[in-house]
Amino acid sequence: QVQLVESGGGLVQSGESLRLSCAASGIIFSNSPMGWYRQSPGKQRELVATVTSGGTINYAGSVKGRFTISRDNARKAVYLQMHDLRPEDTAVYYCWTFSISRSYWGQGTQVTVSS
Q1: At residue 26, what are phi and psi to the nearest 5 degrees?
Q2: Is 11 in contact with 1 (CB distance < 8 Å)?
């Protein structure tokens, strides 16, 4: 059973930083791509950042230079370090992986950035 458990969300002011964490189980973590998506009210879920099993990283243009994704295969965890947060970054952030031909999502963690 695949489980992804996010933590680290919260309420911050514009310009501040947050670090999200995701603990994974039920997958061969070192072989699995991992990532972060987000969804704001009334909007579709969108990609934030992904990292492949080989370490190739992809960022959404809106977060490039401000957010950093990383993975720790020993801890079976993926992280999203977010700097210079803006009100438009407010969303529920979901951890993601792809295993055995389907995507899996965590329950999400709320990030709210006040101006």
Answers
A1: 85, 5
A2: no
